[in-house]
Every structure is written in C-alpha cells, then in structure tokens.
TrEMBL record:
It holds the Pfam family GCE_fung. The keyword Signal applies. It comes from Zhouia amylolytica AD3. Residues 230-374 form the 4-O-methyl-glucuronoyl methylesterase-like domain. The keyword Hydrolase applies. One of its GO terms (molecular function) is carboxylic ester hydrolase activity. It comes from the Bacteria. Keywords: Hydrolase, Serine esterase, Signal. This is 4-O-methyl-glucuronoyl methylesterase-like domain-containing protein.
Amino acid sequence: MIRLIWLFILTNSFLLGGVLYAQPTVRVNNEKTTVESLPDLLTLKHGEPVNSPEVWERLKRPELLHLFKNEVYGMVPDGDPIPSSIEVIEESDAAFNNKAHRIQFALDFKKGHRNLRVHILLYLPKDVFNPPVFLGYNFYGNHTVVHDDNVLVSDSWVRNNETLDVYNHKANQKSRGKRSYRWPVDKILQEGFGIATVYYGDIDPDRNDFTDGIHPFFYKEGQDEPGLNEWGSLTAWAWGLSRILDCLKGYEATADSKYILFGHSRLGKTVLWASALDQRFDMVIANNSGCGGAALFRRKNGETIQLINNRFPHWFSKSFKKYNDKEAMLPLDQHMLIALNAPRPVYIASAIKDKWADPEGEYLSAYYASPVYELYNKRGLSDRNFPDVNKPIHQTIGYHVRSGKHDVTAYDWKQFMIFAKGHLND
Ligand code: GCU
C-alpha cells in the first residue's frame, strides 16, 4: 500500500504572473513507488508490443492522442475551419538599433457577428534569411516583452497585476517592457534566431468564462460552453499556436524557418500539448510546466489534479475532473505527453525551489519518455537519478534544474539557445 507522507505545509506566499496569491498547500508524497505503476509506453492497449517507429506512429501515437483529448485537455470540436485573414499592420527594418526587422500581424477570425483579433509580434535578425524562430505566448501583452514603443498595446482582457499597473483588466502603456527580463530578445536576435510572440489572452482570456475568446466560434446552435470532452483553455491556446504557425509559414521571410515552441508555466503545459498535436513544430521547450505539463500526475507532489481543477476549472476538459484525487485511474501519465513529441528534440526545464511544479516529477517524466526516443535511435535521458542543480543534460531530450524559483531567467535562455543550436538539425 502506498502511504502518503504529508511532509510540510508552506504558509508563505508566491507570485503568480506578478499577482500575489496565498501559497497553496504543498504536499509531498515522499514515496517513489507511485511512478513504478506508470502506464507502459511501449505496449498497445490490447497488449502487443510497440517495437518500431512504424508501430509507434501508426498505432500507439493515435491511441495516446485520443486518450489525452478525451480524458485530459479536451478536443477541438469538429466543423468547418473558422474563416480567418492575416494582414501586416506595422513593420520596420530599424528595430533594435537597426539590427532587426519588426513585423506586427493582425490575424482575424470572423464568424457571423463575431470577430477575434490576434496580434503577432515578430522580430527577425537582418542578416539571416528564414532563421530558426522561437515562438511563445506571453502573459500580459506583446508590449510587455520588449522596450519598443512601436509595439501595439493589447486591447484584450488581461489579468489584473499591480506590479504591471494592470487594473480593470486592461493593458496600458505603463506596462511597456515590464516583462522584458524574461525575454532577452536582443540576445536571441544576436544569436541568429527570430522570435515571435502573442498575448495568450488574444486567443482565450484566462478566466473561467467560455463566452469569450475562440470557443464560441465553434458552438453549435444553443451551445454556450464546451461539452464534456471538448476543449478547455489549454487546448484553445494550443490550437492558437498552430494558427499562428500557419501565418508564419505563409510569410516569405519565415516560410522555411524551423520553429521552436517555448512556454513557461501554464504556457509550458500548453506548448507540450501543442507540439504533441502539431508535428510541424520542430522543437519544444517547456519551462517550469508542472502539473498538466511535464510533471507526472501519479507522484502527487506539489500541485495535484484536484488542486489544479479546483483553482483553474477552465484549463482542462470537464471529463478530466473525474480524476480528482484518483490519479491511479488515469489511463495515461505525462511521460506519454513528452513521448508524443518524439523524435523531435524536447527540453524540460525546472527550478529547484519550484516545488509546486515538482521538479523531480518533471525529470522522471522526461526519463520515462526516453524509450520512445530510443526506438528512433535518439538519446533521451539515461539516468533515473535526479541530476545536480545547474548541470544541464543536452541529449535529444534535454533537461536542467537550475537554482532559484519559478521564473524564466538568463540561465534558462542560455541553455535553450545552446540546445536549439545543437539539436535543430537532429
Ligand atoms: C499556478 C498554477 C500552475 C501554473 C502556474 C502559472 O501556480 O497552479 O499550474 O503552472 O500558476 O502558470 O504561473
């Protein structure tokens, strides 16, 4: 019998996107045994072995995608594609002291009286044609990511945040550049990468409300919220990344670029799911993604299914709620989500003080995904022991746990760029 040992309750507070929240109770299940009961990646549901990339791709991959769609994140409803148009609304070749191109696109979705505008901000180094591009959502608007007065201020609903001067859910000029410490755009450009970012709330505002964002575009008559196994916000954000990719692939200067998806925290969860769904993404980096991202549900360390469903009821499908406090009933776990990215390079990054995201659970998930990479003769993680702090591992699965807390730091970006350069041509 597995016994849960309740080790400690933290009573301090933590910053979530700059907003002060009461620190939820951090539970530590001190037994490692739970992960020994992980559902097997290399066995089909009727028991046959998965022993080649061919069997993985034809049978196991679809089986797992079906499970993740139906049991966890929810599926995008069937139907005709939503009519959309893309337009360059601003551009300059004088960004970053004349070193970069800046292009701002408006991606518009239209259906009946509904209109949803998504702003894409793209910077490209001037001396590289079709450079590899980091693509990631931001939390508070494109204008917060850089000190650049030409970046348009988002008009969508944003989470209030006193540090960023966001009140009444409207972004404003005062938050310009305030998140630039997380986005070393200048350095990224210097290293020969492009970077594209979008405010995630442009696709779906991050609140428990399904009357806004992209969801209503898919409703059948009379419907006003997603059905039992239909999409929550994480799938909506993932879907949005694919639509943004469509745009960038349709733009001459990035048509043949390679795309590295990047996401932090809830957006780290989003990117792992997005690139599992859409294999056009060449690489994925999930930073501090935790529960519903890289971390194994069955460890129940830090955030659990019940805790995440209660605090963020709109993130997953309604069908996921039946696993509240019933992790053992899940027919999958998150090593399978990571494996759905195989054989593409995937990087999982943790922070040692980010107990809420369960760093060791993130590592073990990547470790247990490795057999699928081995089917392709790629190297995943070979040591089950949790690595030392600040000792990155850069196989086709990459991993680091850095010192410090839940955040995106210069150290993280340094590793991401080294990893991208080393593995984009794998
Ligand atoms: C909360 C949430 C996490 C999430 C994080 C974030 O802490 O519980 O699951 O990753 O917010 O997105 O900042």
